[in-house]
Amino acid sequence: MINFRSISIASLIAFSLASPVEATEKLRLSTPIPASHPLMTKVLKPWAANVKEVTEGRVVVRIMPKIVGSYAGQFDVAATGQADISMGNQSYSPGRFKQYAFAELPGLGDRAEATSVAFWDTYNQYFGPKDEMAEVKVLSLYTAGPGQLFTTEHVVSSMDGNKGVKVRGGGEAATRVVDTLGMTSIQAPFSKAAEMISNGVVDGAMLERSLVPVFGFDRYFKNRFVYPGGLFNVSYFMVMNKKSWAELDPKDQAAIDAISGQVLAQQFGQVWDEIGVSADKAFLDSGMLTTAAEGPLKENLAEAFKAYEKTWIDSVSADGFDGQEIIDSYRALVNEIEQGL
């Protein structure tokens, strides 16, 4: 007598062995970028959709509805697996990271597309074998647009006429410029900036220009102070938990790498530039006074900024890196890319 039940079970086993069902890897992404911000709508969400497409549905990225943990702790959020992917800025962990900081030096670039691509390429060229972020998988690195100083009433015209002006600095790169200008640096989370400005706790803030209209700061600021290539910049990382990365199929790793790295850095930079140009127009339309560093003020700042470079060069030389070569290479690459834009 034929046992159809045995045949059916055997057939199912044989089918499952011959045609394995590939499991879907669901990756949680933690980011401080607001849901409506152009970096989210034009870069991050399309990237997540692209991951699903290039892996043929085997990897799905879920952008968390709110940031996991604190902004300053985003690196550890990925490193410890609280989320699979996180985004943040190294300068919010003072003393922990130093290699990245060449990208935040003043005067190195006016186009975020150029500085972002150059940051990714230069960082990997020089620090790849000894990357201080080696405990995670680095998916991409990028920068914002050039940092500027915005004030409610005060107009910067010299190095010695700024005493008593209180400015929210933010990260290390911005704060030291505030100090160099003889102003009083006030530290506070970005989320508190609007309240501090409206209440007169601070007289200004160091910001990437597009953030001013996006977050409504243009209601308070009448002036901005600019320097060629930026008074500072802000660099960002997008990193992944190493275990989560290792669990992906090699072909999916390769597919994700192909749409991340320099490609993603360029996309982030392009959007920073796009919203930066929109901000410039908004400032012009509103009558905001823009003052550019020139004459003795520009010369004095340039001299101070050389000291910033020297400090960074010394910080990495102890680890065997030629910091001057790295800065020179980065500057040349930024200039080359900007000329082609």
UniProtKB/TrEMBL annotation:
Residues 1-23 form the signal peptide. Keywords: Signal. InterPro entries: DctP_fam, TRAP_DctP_sf. The keyword Signal applies. The keyword Signal applies. GO terms for biological process: transmembrane transport. Pfam families: DctP (PF03480). PANTHER family: BLL6794 PROTEIN (PTHR33376:SF15), PTHR33376. This is Outer membrane transporter protein TsaT. The gene is tsaT_1.
